[in-house]
Amino acid sequence: MPPHRHRPDLRRADPGNDRPDCPDRGGCAGPQLCLYPRHATGFQSGYRNLDDNLRPCHRPDPLLLPRSRSGRLPTDLAATGRSVRNSTAFPNLLRANILANLPDETRTSFIDQCLVRSHSSPVEILTQGVPAAGLFLVAHGRVEVSHCDEDGNSSLIYIAGAGEVLGEVEALTDNPCAASCTTLPNTTLLFCPTAQIIERIGSVQFFRNILSTMYERLMRDNRLLIINQFYTLDQRLCIYLGQLSSPKRPDVEISQAQLAGMIGCSRQAINRKLAKLQDEGLIGLGKGKIRVLDREGLERMGDVVR
């Protein structure tokens, strides 16, 4: 078997090793999360990428924190030197499906106990064939899910967005990851160690939410099988572009080769079809990016059945 193409360079994180470029190198005893990427030194235990993991620190970097549509930071986040809870920084996660129908106290407690990881550049957070140390909850941005076979052929399976969870099945079953997960630029995640997940499993509703997440994936995969088998290339392209984007996030950050792999056709065929959609004013093309301009028109062409 050839070496796995996505296996990262794993190094033991040293939580006590302060980086010289962090303004708080004198000591990080505060309850907030350090969002200076070069200072970050990993979680409290385990192998992690040294430059992208976060540990407790005094002040968050305002440039990496989520903002409102107006571009303003929430009051608590804009102030430096003040404790910021995860539930305050990422209130959208309180509505995540994995926390559905749980008491407000339980949801807030779960989110606040998670560890924040912020990535300005692509980083592999879960590696195919390697056990997961816990689950990841996407707070902001997107994560690519890909699979690599024994011959080294890699295929992009899905792109997860805010509120979606990754790695929970592998974390609970102690199985190696079925796929690799890589963040897109400017993505923020919450990490929940396996021990914390097991503590919550005692809640019947939380257990149901885990199973509901698996059920939704089964339904999505079943529908994609039907689409790939019975829909035309034009329809498949429009449907995938619709699924990979949203009204609030119209940009699909994906190469034409990756899109061709997902749909099951050649890159040349995708290039021609995208050019046609651009001429019709449905999309805009950029370097490594496709912007959906007319979502309703795209759905009509894809004949999407909701």
TrEMBL record:
Residues 1-24 are annotated as: Disordered. The keyword Transcription regulation applies. One of its GO terms (molecular function) is DNA binding. It comes from the Bacteria. Keywords: DNA-binding, Transcription, Transcription regulation. Residues 98-190 form the Cyclic nucleotide-binding domain. Residues 231-296 form the HTH crp-type domain. The keyword Transcription applies. It holds the Pfam family HTH_Crp_2. One of its GO terms (cellular component) is cytosol. Residues 10-24 have a biased composition (Basic and acidic residues). SMART domains: cNMP, HTH_CRP. This is Crp/Fnr family transcriptional regulator. It comes from Paracoccus zhejiangensis.
